[in-house]
C-alpha cells in the first residue's frame, strides 16, 4: 500500500471481502483509515494512520490478547506493531525506513537490531513480517 495510492476505494473493497485471519498493512494514510472503517468494525485491531510512508495497521478476525503500535526506545518516527493472539502467537509487523541514505541505513539497522533483541526475549510463539 502506498500512502499516495490512487486506488484506495478498489483495494479497500478487496480487503473487506478478503477473509484473512490477520491482515497487516503498511503506509496506511488517513484516507486508508476511513476506507477501512468497516473492517475496523468487524475485527480487533490497532493502527496508526498518518500521511507518511510509516502509517500501519493490523486487523484480526482471530481473538487478540493485545495489539499495540509501538516505537523502539531510540526512535519516535518508525513504528512497529506487536500483537498477541489468544492462542499465544505473537505477531510483529514492521516497515523500516528504506536504505536510500547513510542516515536511513543506520536508522533501519538500529530499529531491526532493537526489535531482534526484543523478539529474542519473547518466550512464546512468534511470527514476524518485515515489509
Descriptive tags:
single chain, alpha+beta, four-stranded mixed sheet, 131 residues
Plain-language structure description:
With 131 residues, the chain is an alpha+beta fold. The chain contains 4 helices and 7 strands; from the N terminus they run H-E-H-H-E-E-E-E-E-H-E. The strands form 2 sheets. It has a 4-stranded mixed sheet with strand order 4-5-6-7, with no helix packed on it. A 3-stranded antiparallel sheet has the order 1-3-2. The relative contact order is 0.15. The model has no long low-confidence stretch (mean pLDDT 88).
Mean pLDDT: 88
Task: Decide which structural class fits the backbone.
Answer: alpha+beta
Percentage of residues assigned to helices: 25-40%
Shape: flat
How are helices and strands ordered from N to C? Answer: HEHHEEEEEHE
- Biggest sheet layout: 4 strands, mixed
Q: Report the radius of gyration as a whole number of Å.
A: 15 Å
What is the total tally of β strands?
7
Quickly count the helices: 4
Please, what is the oligomeric state? single chain
Low-confidence stretches: none
- From the N-terminal CA to the C-terminal CA, the straight-line distance is 10 Å
Strand arrangement, major sheet = 4-5-6-7
Strand fraction: 25-35%
Quickly describe the structure.
By secondary structure, the chain is of the alpha+beta class.
Explain the layout of strands and helices.
Layout: H1 8-17, E1 22-26, H2 30-35, H3 37-42, E2 44-48, E3 56-60, E4 64-70, E5 80-85, E6 90-94, H4 102-121, E7 126-130
Parallel strand pairs: 6-7
Antiparallel strand pairs: 1-3, 2-3, 4-5, 5-6
Amino acid at each position: 500500500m502506498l500512502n499516495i495510492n490512487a486506488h484506495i476505494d478498489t483495494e479497500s473493497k478487496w480487503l473487506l471481502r478478503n477473509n484473512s485471519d490477520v491482515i497487516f498493512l503498511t503506509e496506511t494514510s488517513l484516507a486508508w483509515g476511513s476506507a477501512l472503517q468497516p473492517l475496523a468494525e468487524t475485527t480487533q485491531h490497532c493502527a496508526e494512520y498518518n500521511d507518511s510512508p510509516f502509517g500501519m495497521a493490523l486487523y484480526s478476525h482471530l481473538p487478540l490478547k493485545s495489539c499495540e503500535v509501538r516505537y523502539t526506545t531510540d526512535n519516535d518516527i518508525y513504528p512497529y506493531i506487536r500483537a498477541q493472539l489468544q492462542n499465544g502467537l505473537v505477531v510483529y509487523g514492521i516497515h523500516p525506513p528504506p536504505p536510500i541514505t547513510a542516515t536511513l541505513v543506520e536508522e533501519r539497522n538500529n530499529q531491526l537490531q532493537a526489535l531482534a533483541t526484543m523478539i529474542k526475549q519473547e518466550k512464546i510463539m512468534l511470527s514476524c513480517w518485515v515489509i
